[in-house]
Amino acid sequence: MRELLTKIEQATGLDRVGDRLQRAVQGTLRSQRVRDALHGVWLGHPLHPAMVQVPVGAWISAAVVDLLPGQRRAATALVGLGTVSALPAAAAGLNDWATLTRDQRRIGLVHAAANTVGLVLYAGSLAARLNGRHGLGRTLSYLGLSAAGGGAYLGGHLAYKQGAQASQSVSEMHLISDGWHQVGDLSSLPRNELVTKKIDDVSVILYRDGDDVSVMLERCPHQSGPLGEGTIEQIDGHACVVCPWHGSAFRLDGGEVVHGPSANDQVVLPSRVVSGRVEARLP
Ligand code: FES
C-alpha cells in the first residue's frame, strides 16, 4: 500500500484532470462567504472531516442492519440518509481540495473518485430498495461501502501523512522552551506594522497597537506561508494579518481565523512589557 500511495502522490498524469477540476471548483465557489463556511472558518476547525461522519455512520449502520431480519425499512432509511448527506460533505471536501498542494491534490483526486463510485453505488442501492429489489440493494450497498472504505483510507493518508488542512504551525510551539522570552524593546517597535523576530529559532511576528504588542507564530497554519510577509487589513473592526500565499486572514489580537482556506486559528503567545522590554511565552 505504501508503494501505491507513493505512486499516486507522484502521478503527474493526474494533474491534467486535477487542474481542470480545480479551476471548475474555484469558478463555481466564487463567494468568499460560501468558501469560508465550507472550509469551517466559523467552526475554527475543518468542516469536511466532521461532515463525513454522517454518511459513513449511516452507511456502516445500514450494512449492520442489512444482516438483521425484518429491517428493510430501517436499512433503506439509513442508505437514504447516507446518500443525501454525502453531497454537502463532498462539497466541503472539494472546496478544501482546491487549495491543496499538487501531491496532496493527486491523492485527493483518487480519494474523491473512490467516494464518487461509492456514492453512485449507494444511489443505485437506494433506487433498488425503493423499487422493492432489496437483494440488489444490499449487494450495491456492500460494493459502495467497499469503494467508500478505499476512499476513507486515502483520506486518512491525506490528513495524517500529508497534513492536508491540519495546522502547520502548532508543532512549532513544541520548539519553544517554557518561561518568558524577551523579543525586543517596545520603543523600537513601529506602530501598526509587522516585525519578525525569533524565539528559540521559531519565527514570530510582533504587532504593536499603542502599548499593546501581539506576538504570533509566523508560520501560517494552512501551508506554512510566511505571515511576516503578509499584509495588515482591518476586517470587521479588527486588525488582521493576511497570508501572502493563499489569503487566509487571522486576527492579530487573538489569532482567530476570519477568512480561509485555513480553518485553524493561528497561535498567539501571551505577551507583556517589563521595563520597556516585550516578553512572550507559551500559552
Ligand atoms: S499558506 Fe495558505 S493561506 Fe497561508
Could you describe the 3D structure shown?
The protein has 283 residues and is an alpha+beta fold. The protein folds into 2 domains: 2-161; 170-280, 3-layer Sandwich (Rieske Iron-sulfur Protein). Helix content is 48%, strand content 18%. It has helices spanning 2-9, 15-28, 32-39, 47-51, 53-65, 72-97, 102-130, 134-161, 170-173, and strands spanning 181-185, 194-199, 202-209, 212-217, 231-235, 238-242, 249-251, 257-259, 268-269, 271-274, 277-280. The strands form 3 sheets. A 4-stranded antiparallel beta sheet has the order 2-3-4-9, with no helix packed on it. Helix 5 (53-65) packs antiparallel against helix 8 (134-161) and helix 6 packs antiparallel against helix 7 (102-130). It binds FE2/S2 (inorganic) cluster. The site of FE2/S2 (inorganic) cluster has 11 residues, from loops. FE2/S2 (inorganic) cluster is lined by residues 220, 222-223, 225, 243, 245-248, 261-262. This is Ferredoxin subunit of nitrite reductase or a ring-hydroxylating dioxygenase. GO terms for molecular function: 2 iron, 2 sulfur cluster binding; dioxygenase activity; metal ion binding; monooxygenase activity; oxidoreductase activity, acting on paired donors, with incorporation or reduction of molecular oxygen. Keywords: 2Fe-2S, Dioxygenase, Iron, Iron-sulfur, Metal-binding, Oxidoreductase.
